[in-house]
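Hey Z.,

So I finally got round to the 6-O-phosphono-beta-D-fructofuranose thing we talked about over coffee. Here's the setup:
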Amino acid sequence: MSKLTQSPAWQVLLAHQSQINNQTMREMFAADAARFDKFSLQLDGLLFDYSKNRINDQTLKLLLDLARQAGVSEWTARMFGGDKINTSENRAVLHTALRAPRDAVVMVDGKNVVPDVHRVLDHIRRYTESVRNGELRGYTGKPLRHIVNIGIGGSALGPLMVCEALKPYGHPEMQAHFISNVDATDIVETLRHLDAETTLFIVSSKTFTTQETLTNARSARAWLVEKLGAEAAVANHFAAVSTNLKATGEFGINPEHVFEFWDWVGGRYSLWSAIGLPIALFIGMDNFERLLGGARAMDEHFQSAPLERNMPVILGMLGVWYGNFFGAGSYAVLPYDQYLHRLPAYLQQLEMESNGKCVDRAGQPVDYDTHFTVWGEPGTNGQHSFYQLIHQGTRMVPADFMAPIRSHNSLGEHHAMLLSNCLAQTEALMLGKTEAEARAELEAQGLSGEALETLLPFKLFPGNRPTNTMLFDLLDPHTLGMLIALYEHKIFVQGVVWNINSFDQWGVEYGKQLAGKLLPELQGKVALSAHDASTTNLLKRCLSAR
Ligand code: F6P
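And the result:
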């Protein structure tokens, strides 16, 4: 057994789980009028209600004991202080420095990194303002109005999710597009509707070696040159964001349009850096800074609030509670805001690439579960699809609900209906429906006898299904910044408890390596090498069809 599963805090939680397993939240709410006040927190208008969880005062105390035992506060100080806690890559983890105020000091290898952060932010401001106000134009003199981000994973999902989420703040004449997939369909279908004269490509890649991104960038460049008839057009129509300035130079991007970031920014934590360039172009630099400000507010809260009142710590420990002590294998992200429709996809990378690990920091196999599968869909769409399983399936699926109190689009009763659905779902999941309640309902509908008894089992809801609710006034840049940073820090807390490195991603390498070997075989450039029978026959089938 590992040190973690043998530890006193873990063992006490195991015993506690078997006690609380028989209790229902319905009973807990009935017994404690102060439950909501006790189990909810607020920060800058963001209300985090975690009262609909299978916890009592003792559970929370024991979960926080586990967080203390794991050293969550100490690790937090090390991360914010620039220690190289990403040990397998020998890197500091400082996405928090990207939203630090100008006068902050964060040292990495004896150098304060904050002045560099603000130098790049100033560069982004100058560039985005000149594009937005039409000073910097395309090769033929037209304003650049279609921003096309070419990047994948962390160099796409964050900017895409934020540009979608903050659409109401977008420049009225601008549109943001995202090309990620090496599948030609992605670029072909995106460019089909665009006018090269008004299109600005941003090639975003931390390493500037990623196959998908460089292939798409080369195709985009060829498209532009063909449409505008001049190589010289590339200077105005391309910008790049990378830590690899040598490679951006070799690609031929005008150095004035190259935006730098640093190896201490993880790809999936990079939307706050120059990787956020498409966001700043689309919503303007003032709004981008409001987004950074929201994240900074969450950073300050995370660093200073006691564990008992600390949102990321509590959210993280609730995940540990269900994942490790109730055997939940997945959790759902359910935004009741259409603008957040890409949040589940963004969180999939953030969470699963960070904490989907099977060895601990020392490289030893773990004997406990690490991260959940993350999935979700916005609003009521999910209700007519997979909520059946959340309500009546055999597995527990903890879920995070989130909703704005006011909508950017007030239209008739839409928003009241949306909110009523959100609140109704968490209430139903918590309460369930007892046999007596279901029976009474059926009787009220005029059923009796065998007909009633036959239908009854299908009408029961076990309930006691845990949810969190994040409620906020309006989805604005500050709130979104807080929300994203809340999840970033929650993941960090869980990684600390699981004693894993949340900031490397070696698991994505192997497939890339094998694809590199398969490509020339698939192109018929080299003979087939030895593969398993399945891969060999799939390859042969592809080759025979070419
Ligand atoms: O394949 C995984 C990954 O390394 C992610 O972690 C990263 O966000 C993505 O690829 C893109 O990498 P890059 O920004 O270097 O192109």
